[in-house]
Design brief:
The structure is a homodimer.
Chain A lengths: L8 E6 L4 E7 L2 E8 L11 H9 L8 E6 L14 E2 L11 E3 L6 E5 L3 E3 L4 E3 L2 H11 L5 E5 L4 E7 L2 E8 L1 H11 L13 H13 L4 H14 L4 H24 L4 E5 L1 H13 L5 E4 H19 L1
Parallel strand pairs in A: 1-4, 4-7, 5-8, 10-13, 13-14
Antiparallel strand pairs in A: 1-2, 2-3, 6-7, 8-9, 10-11, 11-12
Helix pairs in contact in A: 2-8, 3-6, 4-6, 5-6
Chain lengths: 303, 303
């Protein structure tokens, strides 16, 4: 039997489709574990067991602080952590919501998401990534873009989220490429940068033509030899293109940093570069962890 | 045992999700039958049996002509009927494709769809509805709009389809309202015209904001009390709105007639009326039948 790791605290990123935990020591990461027991698969009563399945090997006899962010704090999650309202700092240790547990070896707290009353918008999880990005690049003023299923653009000033806007870009890409009539023309591995660039430029110059351009992917596959990799890359360009067209008030003339998965961030960086914007890329998981660490440090001080 | 109807010919509308047949006499419809054995559910070898399950009670001993249109003629259908190229008349009896059958009581012919090389576009089934619309309103010059899963706008002049454009509007509505994160906010029966009109006007004035406006439906449901009927109607308005924004070269200053299901055509008529366009509504099934009848008359003359 191996002895437990006994981390100082445990960081948890708990989204709709995934659960990721880090065993943390004062000087870094002791261990990391992931599972696919995301919020979407769990009833409220099942979260504690799902978490313990992942982190049990790390636990000793004394209680350890677990700090979680993401959809775990939504109404359909483990325990609702009511939204904080922008403008505000991305995270606030005083707003952490404690979750009662049956197992005395963990003390669980969930970071709330942010809401913007008008135009109505919400985020859960990204606020922690934003806090991490600000911890990694202190005094950053400008725009943070978090590409993904529901891409977010946030205006950051003096350490606060001033405003933000969400785009359903990633979800549209998944629905269209996997579940619509377009799926028939998306076969084959590979990627075509030229097709991406042409979709991007079409969408930026005539965004209103989206629904017609989408069907063109199908028609060109049938009668003009458009390949799967070309179709997929052009679809991506079209969707990122209309996002950029609408997010222009965010990125125009502003410093922009991207937070997210490497491949997707690089596509956004390429798209922004075509508009003359050089964006810095910050890795998503590091930002999440740095944001949770900010909360852990401040929670420690308070208790 | 009842005696068979012995129709003069049989009209068949065979789409991806449905199969509809009419037993026709020289002076009208003798009987009508539908099933859900659409093209999407059948392998090439299964079409004949699916058709016979529907029309067998109508058949006597002598062979009867069956004229079909729709996805039944696609590469994944019963027998491919290669696209005709616009500009051309919507249908042409000389282009009907005969399909060999095992049962000698039917002689089956499929009407081909239309393709447009540039911008690449295709239709199957709508060309027959267009032919029917022209039979019902002779000498019509102007625009025909066929709202649906893949809405079509066609420019008609001197009995020919000059050009056309397809929008994935209906499919986007189905994916977003039934399979995306927005489905959570779409519960409840009912409809809200004001929400439809506001989505429409948002999309027409700022079409590039679509992906952001979509997520607003979710956010307003969570924090601003948007109801299911309001969300559904606004989604419909947004999607029809970006379609109208892109189809403006078609409808601006042109006579417009709508061909389709009553409720959907009325939404499009309402949307067009807000832009100052008074559109005539032609019922979809009647147009399909009138188009098939045009082919039947001319086929009879030829044989």
């Amino acid at each position: 039997m191996t002895s437990p790791l006994c981390p100082t605290w445990i960081a948890v990123d708990w989204g709709t489709t995934h659960l990721r935990a880090w065993a943390m020591a004062p000087d870094g990461i002791l261990a990391e574990a992931t599972s696919d027991e995301g919020m979407g698969r769990l009833a409220a009563t099942e979260f504690e067991a799902a978490l313990l399945r992942l982190i049990d090997p790390w636990l000793g006899t004394s209680a350890v602080q677990v700090i979680a962010c993401g959809m775990v704090g939504s109404r359909q999650g483990w325990h609702e952590a009511p939204y904080r309202t922008v403008p505000c700092a991305p995270v606030d240790p005083a707003a952490l919501v404690s979750v009662p547990t049956r197992d005395g070896r963990i003390r669980v707290a969930i970071a709330p998401g942010l809401k913007q009353p008008k135009p109505a918008d919400v985020m859960r999880g990204e606020e922690t990534q934003i806090a991490g990005a600000l911890a990694l690049t202190p005094n950053y003023d400008g725009i943070l873009c978090l590409p993904g299923t529901h891409s977010k653009w946030a205006h950051i000033s003096a350490g606060e989220v001033v405003s933000f806007q969400t785009f359903m870009t990633g979800e549209l890409f998944a629905l269209l490429s996997e579940q619509s009539v377009l799926r028939h023309g998306m076969q084959g591995d590979g990627w075509d940068d030229t097709a991406f660039d042409s979709g991007l430029s079409d969408a930026l110059s005539r965004p209103e033509r989206l629904a017609a351009r989408l069907f063109s992917l199908r028609a060109e596959g049938l009668i003009a030899g458009l390949t799967g990799p070309q179709a997929r890359a052009r679809l991506s360009g079209l969707l990122i293109g209309i996002e950029l067209a609408a997010a222009k008030p965010y990125w125009l003339g502003q410093p922009v940093a991207l937070i997210g998965a490497q491949a997707l961030s690089q596509l956004y960086a390429r798209a922004l570069a075509a508009q003359g914007v050089v964006a810095q890329i910050l890795p998503g998981p590091q930002c999440t962890l740095a944001g949770l660490a900010t909360l852990a440090r401040q929670t420690e001080t308070r208790t």
